[in-house]
Write a structure and sequence with these properties.
The structure holds 2 protein chains of 2 kinds. By secondary structure, chain A is mostly beta strands. Chain A is 0% helix and 51% strand. Classes of the chains: A mainly beta, B mainly beta.
């Protein structure tokens, strides 16, 4: 069965360190997305990609970067982790391009920045 | 600046009855609205969507109503089942405004057997 996976599921890091969260999907979807979820805020869109070599900024992109070198993977990098980036991070993919189409989410990565 | 609000953090209903989850938005540029359901330790799951040209969309036990003049949407679940117990998020999207996508903070629904 096709799926979307995230690794690691839990990560503790220190302020100032570079951190990369992995997202891998076997749906063969061109469209992939990264969100963060904080208490009281629902989900917020960080970055998204419509295909290889394509990346776009979302609502809260500062301090994050993504790169898309193949269809299956969209890693999210925190260049210099800050305590404000402690959150649960969700990756998603979709068959159709527009944000209002159904997205399939991974199980999430809980990141703690000390 | 919360452009999408779910004012009820929690809702409890009896099995078999109707669940009504509400969502308000402030930006008239939003054209599409979605509902996602989330169980603990899992990613959200898409439920249903509606575009601003409609005022109602149904999918089985789930119906979404949109009142554009009031900037209000609601999700009705009939009949409610214990497996519906989850956190429900509404989301609003403006494809023509730089793909602005905003989520509400969620409502935790508990369906009691």
């Amino acid at each position: 069965d096709a799926e979307i996976t995230q690794s690691p599921r839990h990560k503790i890091t220190e302020t100032g360190r570079q951190v990369t969260l992995a997202c891998h999907q076997t749906w063969n979807h061109n469209n992939m997305f990264w969100y963060r979820q904080d208490l009281g805020h629902g989900l917020r869109l960080i970055h998204y990609s419509y295909g290889v070599q394509d990346t776009n900024k979302g609502e809260v992109s500062d301090g994050y970067s993504v790169s898309r070198s193949n269809t299956e993977d969209l890693p999210l990098t925190l260049e210099s982790a800050a305590s404000s980036q402690t959150s649960v991070y969700f990756c998603a993919s979709s068959e159709k391009r527009a944000l209002y189409n159904e997205q399939f989410f991974g199980p999430g990565t809980r990141l703690t920045v000390l | 600046d919360q452009q999408v609000k779910q004012n009820s953090p929690s809702l409890s209903v009896q099995e078999g009855r109707i669940s009504i989850l509400n969502c308000d938005y402030t930006n008239s540029m939003f054209d599409y609205f979605l509902w996602y359901k989330k169980y603990p330790a899992e990613g959200p799951t898409f439920l249903i969507s509606i575009s601003s040209i409609k005022d109602k969309n149904e999918d089985g036990r789930f119906t979404v109503f949109l009142n554009k003049s009031a900037k209000h949407l609601s999700l009705h679940i009939v009949p409610s089942q214990p497996g519906d117990s989850a956190v429900y998020f509404c989301a609003a999207i403006s494809p023509y405004n730089n793909n602005d996508m905003r989520f509400g903070a969620g409502t935790r629904l508990t369906v009691k057997p």
